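Run: sequence + flavin-adenine dinucleotide -> complex structure.
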Amino acid sequence: MQVKTQLDEIQNYLTDASNMQGGFAEKLFVPETVLEISEILREANEKKIAVTVSGARTGTVGGAIPFGGYVISLEKFNKIKSIDKENLFATVESGVSLIDFQKAVEAENLFYPPDPTEWSCQLGGTVATNASGARSFKYGATRNFVETLEVVLANGEIVKLKRGEVFSDNGFIELTTESGKTIKAKLPTYEQPDVRKNTSGYFSGAKIDAIDLFIGSEGTLGIITEIGLKLLPKPASFFSGIIFFENETNLLNFVNEARFISFQTRADKDQRPKTKDRIDASLIEYFDENALKFISEKFPEVPENAKGAIFFEQETNAETEDALLEQWNELLEKNGADLERSWFTTTEQDREKMRAFRHALPVSVNERIVRYKQKKIGTDMAVPDDCFVSFLRFLKEKLDESGLEYVIFGHIGDNHLHANMIPKTDEEATKARHLYGRFIAQSIMLGGTISAEHGIGKHKSKYLYVQYGERYLNEMAELKRAFDPHGILGRGNMFDVKFLSN
Ligand SMILES: Cc1cc2nc3c(=O)[nH]c(=O)nc-3n(C[C@H](O)[C@H](O)[C@H](O)COP(=O)(O)OP(=O)(O)OC[C@H]3O[C@@H](n4cnc5c(N)ncnc54)[C@H](O)[C@@H]3O)c2cc1C
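>> structure
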């Protein structure tokens, strides 16, 4: 095992994609076995030294940034142990990168849907943040694919979890470690917001599977070392479209209908296999008018008068393709889409171009931000179905009033949009931060979540306090203490350390 202490060796492990500054650490460990991780944690626990788990550091909320103590990097846990084609199951070490895994799965003609855009992340990181992406609209977040976990707890004890084996009872979870010790923890009593994507705080509910507690726990309850993942057969092909609308009401009606029919199709599927040839979008993504203007710098073929666009994708095969194309066409016509100038494809090559179009937006925004020497301030909130349109109007109204440059885009199928504010000056940055606070308040008031996919980390812990309040943060801290009595793991992630000293 490598152990590094020099700043130039540790430097890369002190930042992540959040750009949060000020990270520092005493030692970096790069273990190669579970036993080594167990030993480091046993020592850190005895000495009450903070331990930060480091994946690929693509997280956007500072979760992997240490503020003192040890860093444990999982980069050597990079083996894909098995891909069982027959049982659609893979076992991996947690440091395997998503891109390596996707390539291996693809080579077996299988499909692993979770796709948080940034493929250099590690699978352990995606489990720890319950990462999701555009296709989560159909397939759900990473949680839906995690079947087994091996986790090393703060005191070095190891637990092995299998979905369906251990459930909470009367608000408590009881786990037995590999050495036979029992841990009993009280779950937080908050209700999960009524949204389809949520990464705010520990998973909780009336009866939860123990494995779900560790998914999305952001390196605060244990170090994930091995993961068993469910796979799907690879879809034969996809039908995709980037559709432009001259009228935003039409666009929103189209999204509403496409979403409604997709949910109906899924609900019927078990009873009526024929519904496979009915609309069932795997992703529905949104671009507002400003976003299109940004992208048109790289894609001049974007129609000038477009007030917004939708990118959708639908699984097809030789039997269903014609019927599905017809149904999408009907739905688009009915809702006044600009069919003449929209783009459609059933080929992999053109779909890549559509992905490039989607990707061009965050890239262009980042370029602009760098030019202004400022930081991007972007939302990650989701709200319940019936509040979505009013939330979007609220965002636009306040942003237009502010005079700030902004774009809104993202996972409209899940009522989850990223409103990115692009301040040009320090004064505008202050204005943007103020607005961000108002958006947080509004999303909470509507029963939504402050974070649908990026997690809380250190960046948003003060907003989690706003979402849950003192009582529930104390309950989260009580749960953490049951697994990590000295609060050494992921210190500062999700909630302030002051909650751990109660
Ligand atoms: C350009 C870009 C686009 C993105 N788009 C999306 C998106 O669409 N959807 C989305 O969900 N996310 C998105 N993300 C962020 C996303 O969180 C990460 O891509 C990924 O989930 C984190 O993996 P990582 O290995 O980089 O983890 P890190 O950033 O290293 O760590 C993230 C957190 O997990 C903990 N952790 C890491 N590994 C382990 C482990 N083995 N055991 C326990 N805890 C661990 C860390 O301590 C930290 O708290 C994006 C990021 C970028 C840069």
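>> summary
The longest helix spans residues 348-372. Residues 80-233+482-487 form a domain with the Uridine Diphospho-n-acetylenolpyruvylglucosamine Reductase; domain 3 fold (CATH 3.30.465.10).
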